[in-house]
Specification:
This is Crp/Fnr family transcriptional regulator. This protein is mainly alpha-helical. It has 2 domains: about 35 residues, no CATH class; about 60 residues, no CATH class. It is built from 5 helices and no strands. Helix 3 packs parallel to helix 5 and helix 4 packs antiparallel against helix 5. It is elongated, with a radius of gyration of 20 Å. About 10% of the residues are buried.
Length: about 120
Amino acid sequence: MSQSVAQRLSDILITLPEAEQKNVLAFAEFLHARVRAEHPLTLPLPELLEPPQGESVVAAIKRLSRSYAMLDKTKMLGQTAELMTQHVVYGRTAEEIIPLLETLFMQHYQSFVEHYNKQIG
């Protein structure tokens, strides 16, 4: 759901009486159950690409973004930018930063899996 849709829905809900809020929730749960029955969720798996020899930090970010295409990169932007800053500004080597980026992407994928499991559970 886009941020604007979520915000609009929230704006509408807070103006409704509690009984109507419960009706909206019940309808949303009904739609959710129907969609899940028609289109069962399948967990997207990462397609881990091999890093080329001498890979740069920018190339690693692009490779990991392709490997973990299902992740919302905007949620990772701050952490990714921080690692890039450590490389460019503070001189940490690509050999130091790339494993940290790989760990970051794996952690975000694990969060994605946990969220997925809650959705189907």
